[in-house]
Write a structure and sequence with these properties.
The protein is an alpha/beta fold. It has 8 helices and 10 strands. The protein has an 8-stranded parallel beta barrel with strand order 1-2-3-4-7-8-9-10, surrounded by 5 helices. Helix 7 links the parallel strand 9 (about 235-240) and strand 10 (about 270-275). Helix 3 (about 80-95) packs across helix 4 (about 120-140). It is globular, with a radius of gyration of 18 Å. About 40% of the residues are buried.
Length: about 300
């Protein structure tokens, strides 16, 4: 299978000051998809401009035609499945069926306390995530949903006419643990990894490759448990969080080597960050564009 190349555009620029142009340029460069983070704020960007994911994707849908769009990733930290489903159905309609929902359990960052709550424990995040995905699946495939769960409720929630994409827009489930991988196997059209976070500071690229190989094997097992062929599940890697850090974007050859090693693991889509000066995602824009235009043909 050929490797798809996508990008993630962080929502830190005003639409009139480079925001619009980045999404349009992503389409011109031939990226398969362009995603954005779904956070209220994020790490080193906390004290600077940061815009909402759904309005940003809506605007991007209006100025592009073929480019797939999505979140990497949405989480239950500040979302409710009933309101999110309504927004996603609207976004899928506006885009003409070009939306992918990247979805994960969330973490302990700023989103976890922005609504005034105490951070959830890892167990509670996993419990909420499981219920969130299951309820959202129903909301996006059924006209009317009533549900009473441990964390979420819905009372005759109407979602007519549903998604343009049938039976619903695709889920790309971010997961590395057993419960999350089972969710990906059951509900996902794609699985998302950023590698093993424990290796980011002191690990090696070789250790990272081995860790991702292990994740793919566990995903394969989770699919086998329910009689699903793992080959039918796209495998997305969001780069920038492995020991390689920014090195793959230093040259076309460096990226081809990086991408090839991960393609051999079964990765079907690699996502690279749109360059942001003076940040962890700084990169030479000319090299970035060269990678976008040339690398897919080399990895078919």
């Amino acid at each position: 299978m050929s490797l798809r190349l996508s990008t993630v555009i962080l929502p830190y620029r005003r639409w009139s000051e480079g925001g619009r142009e980045a999404w349009q340029r992503a389409e011109q460069l031939g990226f398969h998809s362009a995603y954005t983070y779904d956070h209220l704020s994020w790490r080193s960007f906390r004290d600077g401009p940061w815009f909402g994911a759904v309005p940003t994707l809506t605007a991007a849908a209006a100025v592009t035609e073929q480019l797939r769009l999505g979140t990497l990733v949405t989480s239950p930290n500040f979302r409710h499945p009933v309101t999110l489903a309504k927004e996603l159905i609207s976004l899928d309609d506006i885009s003409g069926g070009r939306i992918t929902l990247g979805i994960g359990a969330g973490g302990t960052g700023f989103d976890a306390t922005a609504l005034g709550q105490e951070p959830w424990t890892p167990r509670e995040r996993a419990d909420r995530f499981a219920e969130f995905v299951a309820v959202l699946d129903r909301l996006l495939t059924e006209d009317s949903v009533s549900y009473e769960g441990d964390f979420y409720s819905a009372h005759e929630a109407r979602n007519i006419p549903g998604c343009v994409q049938r039976p619903r827009l695709p889920f790309a489930v971010a997961a590395t643990g057993p419960r999350g991988l089972r969710l990906a196997a059951r509900y996902g059209q794609a699985w998302v990894t950023t590698g093993d976070p424990k290796l980011y500071e002191n690990g090696t690229p070789e250790q990272s490759v081995q860790a991702i190989r292990g994740q793919v094997e566990k995903l394969t097992d989770a699919c086998a448990e329910i009689g699903r062929d793992v080959a039918g599940l796209d495998k997305i890697m969001l780069t920038g969080f492995t020991p390689d850090r920014g090195r793959p974007l230093q040259s076309l050859d460096a990226f081809v080597d990086f991408a090839g090693r991960h393609q051999e693991l079964g990765i079907t889509e690699i996502v690279i960050h749109w360059p942001i000066p003076d940040s962890d995602f700084a990169a030479d824009e000319k090299v970035f564009e060269q990678i976008a235009m040339d690398v897919a043909a080399q990895l078919r």
